[in-house]
Known about the structure:
Layout: H1 2-134
Amino acid sequence: MEDDRVSILEAQLAQAKMIAEDSDKKYEEVARKLVMMEQDLERAEERAEHSDSKIVELEEELRVVGNNLKSLEVSEEKATQREETFEEQVKALSNQLKEAEARAEFAERSVQKLQKEVDRLEDDLVTEKEKNKLL
């Protein structure tokens, strides 16, 4: 009976050793997976940190671009207003030029008429002087 008991205990011991070895293997596997997951987590945190800084950088760039866009829109609006003002000035100056050309043309015709009148009067004067000489 003692031998049976020893055999049973030896069998239980062998089984316990097998269970312990299996548990050790499972522990080592879990520990290895844990190390890998911790490394993955560290890399993921580094990527997240890099992404966060990139987000901040891009947000700043977006703000600057937005401000530049607003400035360009204001500049475009001012340029459009200046263009409209210049077009109005060109139109007004064109009208003034037409009026001045019309006045100049009228003045030239008046000068020609007056010159003809002066020429006629000078001719009359010469004629009258000759008549006076004859008297």
